[in-house]
C-alpha cells in the first residue's frame, strides 16, 4: 500500500523560463544538488533507523522535461545498505541499484528524464530498501 502521492502541477513554459538546465537520468546513486526547479516532499525517517532520512523530489526543467529523485541522507554513525525504486505517473520509473551509503553522505537515485508538457499533474512514489527493509514514501 502506498501513501499519498507527491503532486506537482507542471508549470507553463513561461513560468519555467528562468531555469534552463535539463534534468539528467541515472540508475545508480549520485550526489544531489538542489535546484529551484526541484519540488520535494519533507524528509521521512526510515522505520529501520531514526538516523536515515529519505524524500521524493520531482524536477521539471524549462523544456517541460521531468524526472523524479529518491534522496537518501545517512546521519547514522555507520554505513548502511540502500536500494529501491522510483515510480511515477508520467513514465519515468527506475530501479535504484543496491549500494553502500557511508555516514554523513546524501545520495539520489534519478529516474529517466521524460517530456511531460504543460498542465499535467505529476505524481512520484519511492521505495527505499534500507538494510533489507522496504518503506514507501511520497507526500502531497
From TrEMBL:
Signal sequence, start to end: 1-25
Keywords: Signal
Protein name as catalogued: Spore-associated protein A
Organism of this sequence: Streptomyces argyrophylli
Amino acid at each position: 500500500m502506498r501513501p499519498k502521492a507527491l503532486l506537482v502541477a507542471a508549470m507553463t513554459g513561461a513560468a519555467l523560463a528562468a531555469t534552463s538546465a535539463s534534468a539528467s537520468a541515472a540508475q545508480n546513486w549520485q550526489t544531489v544538488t538542489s535546484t529551484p526547479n526541484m519540488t520535494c516532499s519533507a524528509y521521512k525517517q526510515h522505520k529501520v533507523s531514526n538516523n536515515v532520512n529519505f524524500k521524493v523530489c520531482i524536477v521539471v526543467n524549462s523544456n517541460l522535461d521531468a524526472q523524479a529523485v529518491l534522496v537518501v541522507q545517512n546521519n547514522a554513525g555507520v554505513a548502511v545498505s540502500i536500494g529501491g525504486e522510483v515510480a511515477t505517473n508520467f513514465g519515468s520509473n527506475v530501479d535504484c541499484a543496491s549500494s553502500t551509503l557511508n555516514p554523513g553522505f546524501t545520495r539520489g537515485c534519478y529516474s529517466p528524464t521524460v517530456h511531460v508538457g504543460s498542465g499535467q499533474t505529476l505524481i512520484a512514489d519511492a521505495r527505499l530498501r534500507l538494510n533489507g527493509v522496504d518503506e514507501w514514501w511520497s507526500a502531497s
